Amino acid sequence: xxxxxxxxxxxxxxxxxxxxxxxxxxxxxxxxxxxxxxxxxxxxxxxxxxxxxxxxxxxxxxxxxxxxxxxxxxxxxxxxxxxxxxxxxxxxxxxxxxxxxxxxxxxxxxxxxxxxxxxxxxxxxxxxxxxxxxxxxxxxxxxxxxxxxxx
Length: 151
What we know:
This protein is mostly helical. The chain has 6 helices and 4 strands. The strands form 2 sheets. Strands 1-4 form a two-stranded parallel ribbon. A two-stranded antiparallel sheet has the order 2-3. A hairpin with a 6-residue loop joins strand 2 (about 90-95) and strand 3. It is elongated, with a radius of gyration of 22 Å. The two termini are about 15 Å apart.
């Protein structure tokens, strides 16, 4: 079933425009983040920061996102480091003395880092669903034009 998009104007005319429904989207502030990462980040985390700033849509990341982006950059760098080590060592290790296999001890921290990254990505709008919910500064009204405006 296709979703029907109703304009704010139509909602006001019908009397169904409710403030609680407007709170679903976050409006960004005017002060944008700079490509310059915090000084105390590692080289890998600085690269992650720069990549995020470069790939984010213009006006998407603001100064208010700095701490979340820093957390994401640190965890992204750590994720890459542990992933490489796991690829080299293997996820399953063989104990030479007993002949038993065991899970690499780095696997559990990797999973926890993935969870942190997922939470940060949702907050920053790095996932398709979260990106659709974030409005940039100046996007007060949704675009009422488009291919299907006359329907």
